[in-house]
Amino acid sequence: MSNSSRIIPEPLKTQSLVSDLKKRLDWGEPALTIIDIRDRDAFNTSHISGAISLPINSLVDRTLINLELTRDLYLYGSTDEQTASAAAQLRTVGYQNVAEVKGGLAAWKASSYPIEGNSTKVA
User: Fold this and answer.
1) What's the CA gap between 2 and 8, in Å, rounded?
2) Res 123: pLDDT
3) pTM for this structure?
4) What is the pLDDT of residues 33-54, one digit of tens each?
5) 110 φ, ψ to 5°?
6) What is the three-state SS of the chain?
7) Among 98, 89, 96, which Cα is nearest to 58's?
8) What is the pLDDT along the chain (123 residues), one digit of tens a residue?
9) Rounded distance, CA 56 to CA 83, Å?
10) Structural domains of the chain, with CATH
11) Are 94 and 11 in contact (CB under 8 A)?
């Protein structure tokens, strides 16, 4: 597929749908980081394919060490409220491009998008 026929995804939105994130990943030049803010056990059980685990209790410190302030970040947690809280924390310390993935992992799974983890098999 030539670059001219590839659809460029929309710019990062503060409130992003799982389909927005999937389009960005499918674009082939994502330049983003997906952050799962749930605890490590939940992450190990199942998470969005390609996500990294940065639990909310250490999120700001670990993100500041590992990711530049201009990086596009897509966050999801156990609830949209938890995700919004984590996103607000990152914005407060200077992250400019933070998207809250609405519906998180449940919405991602409901759309049959790829997941990883110990329980990725369908019953």
Assistant:
1) 12
2) 39
3) 0.87
4) 999 999 999 999 999 999 999 9
5) -60, -25
6) CCHHHCCCCCCCCCEECHHHHHHHHHCCCCCEEEEECCCHHHHHHCEECCCEECCHHHHHHHHHHHCCCCCEEEEECCCHHHHHHHHHHHHHCCCCEEEEECCHHHHHHHCCCCEECCCCCCC
7) 89
8) 444 445 666 777 888 999 999 998 988 777 899 999 999 999 999 999 999 999 999 999 999 999 999 999 999 999 999 999 999 999 999 999 999 999 999 999 999 999 999 875 443
9) 9
10) 9-112 (3.40.250.10)
11) no
* 8 Å CB contact between 69 and 96: yes
Given the structure tokens 């390609």, which residue do they identify?
A: 50
Instruction: State the virtual CA torsion across 15, 7, 72, 28 in degrees, nearest 10.
Output: 130
C-alpha distances in angstroms, 107 versus 21, 39, 62, 79, 81? 11, 18, 26, 11, 15
Type of residue at 104: G
